[in-house]
Design a protein that fits this description.
- This protein is α+β, with helices and mostly antiparallel strands.
- The chain is built from 13 helices and 20 strands.
- The protein has a 6-stranded mixed β-sheet with strand order 1-2-6-3-7-16, sandwiched between helices. Strands 9, 10, 11, 12 and 13 form a 5-stranded antiparallel β-sheet that branches.
- The chain is elongated and about 80 Å long.
């Protein structure tokens, strides 16, 4: 513990300066060019050889202890949100780190620096993979779907994208710490399908000849009303969430809207719950289109898998916290979060933990979100993560090996997992009108 504390404290200024720089230069998912460049330069100054993601931001850096053992992945997310009314949001873009990923990136840099110090990795085995990863916040769906169409990415979330690119090959287990109000870990989090629905009508003069048009906005309103009527059919245990927004509602007030765009997620605790709810919602959205004679193209893209925090890793994490930051009273919460994270994608094939630190005030994703105690958010988090790493990889990796051996993954390999989530993707017009019948594909 003395070596860990000393090493992290040595790089206190490096960590805190990075947190402020990234806070002041927010960038959303797959746009984190400045953040990635900043971190790359700092890692290289520390002597790391990096593996860059390629045509997207982000990279990995590996430490080999020279002793055979498990490979442990430590992650730091880079992307921001869009909250234009936050006082410190970028005035042009509305970007702001209202989920604390600036903290994660700065902490990852601090961990990288501390692991270079004498004595910190003594007695450890295996390999340590550090990763600055993009695109955790599942926003700007049309932009990301555009990147998919261009062949730039295959997956909306950075972790699945890195997984598919082979950047996590050989990894046995993973963890990261997310900034929050207090130090704790939950049982898991819901997963999601991302949905973009394009209601297609016919434009006409809204005053002179509205009967010549088909109002896509009315179709969307009917579809969303139908979806809302389904809410009591969702089981509480499944933690279903559907929260649509209209991102395009027409062109001009005196023309019948011919195209209306709706974005949402369908969230749930399990893949079965998500896919069942998604079919119901698609049925309701299609019914809205049918009600006025419109059509609808529903683009369903696999979002994030439900997160399952490994129980044994969670207990080991608490042990690490009680040793290195006992004053934080780290606790295990048996509830499941109804937010989503692409850390869930990794939990489908390997044991992971995704705990929370303190040091934040305000609402997550809100206009009052601030890092008010960087000591708790960054410095203590770095110490905690290195302590967890030590407990996993000391004594020939005995505790890491036990966790890995007892883990029962939902999918046997990354290929099996990625093939499954690819099967969730759907798009195209859902309604076919004929003279005497209507066919619907949900």
């Amino acid at each position: 513990m003395e070596a860990i504390n000393k090493a992290v404290e040595k790089y206190r200024n490096l960590i805190l300066e990075a947190e402020r720089y990234i806070w002041k230069n927010p960038e959303t998912g797959y746009r984190e060019v400045k953040t990635s460049k900043y971190l790359q330069e700092k890692f290289e100054e520390l002597g790391y050889n990096l593996t860059l993601a390629g045509n997207i931001p982000g990279f990995t850096a590996e430490i080999d202890t020279g002793k055979e053992g498990p490979k442990v992945l430590i992650l730091g997310e880079m992307d921001s949100l869009i909250v234009p009314n936050h006082k410190e949001a970028d005035p042009e873009t509305g970007y702001v780190h209202s989920c604390g990923h600036n903290v994660q990136s700065a902490t990852l840099l601090g961990i990288a620096a501390a692991l270079k110090e004498e004595g910190v990795t003594d007695g450890l085995c295996g390999k340590i993979l550090l990763c600055a990863v993009p695109a955790e916040e599942l926003i700007e769906l049309e932009y990301r779907i555009g990147l998919k169409k261009q062949g730039v990415i295959k997956y909306l979330g950075g972790k699945s994208e890195f997984l598919s690119r082979g950047l996590f090959d050989g990894v046995d287990m993973a963890f990261m710490v997310h900034a929050s109000l207090q130090y704790h870990i939950v049982k898991g989090a819901v997963g999601c399908i991302s949905k973009t629905a394009y209601y297609k009508g016919v434009s006409a003069h809204a005053g002179g000849s509205p009967w010549c048009g088909v109002n896509a906005l009315y179709a969307a309103s009917q579809g969303l009303s139908g979806a809302n009527a389904l809410r009591e059919t969702f089981k509480e245990a499944d933690l279903i969430r559907f929260h649509p927004i209209i991102t395009h509602g027409g062109e001009v007030v005196n023309a019948i809207p011919e195209l209306v765009t709706v974005e949402s997620f369908v969230r749930g605790k399990t893949f079965d719950a998500i896919t069942n709810a998604n079919k119901k919602i698609n049925r309701a959205l299609c019914a809205g289109a049918i009600s006025v004679g419109a059509n609808i193209d529903i683009v369903d893209v696999s979002g994030y898998a439900p997160l399952i925090n490994d129980e044994k890793m969670s207990l080991l994490l608490k042990e690490a916290a009680d040793m290195i930051i006992p004053e934080e009273n780290f606790f295990i919460d048996e509830n499941t979060s109804t937010g989503s994270t692409d850390m869930g994608d990794l939990s489908c094939i390997m044991p992971v933990v995704h705990p929370y630190s303190g040091g934040i005030t305000g609402k997550a994703h809100g206009d009052d979100y601030y890092v008010t105690d960087p000591e708790r958010a960054c410095i203590k988090s770095a110490k905690l993560q290195i302590m967890l790493l030590k407990l996993l990889l000391e004594n020939n990796g005995a505790r890491a090996k036990e966790i890995i051996e007892n883990y029962n993954p939902q999918f046997k390999s990354k290929e099996e997992y990625l093939n499954y989530v690819d099967s969730l993707n759907q798009n195209g017009d859902r309604i076919t009108y004929a003279d005497d019948e209507i066919k619907v594909r949900i």
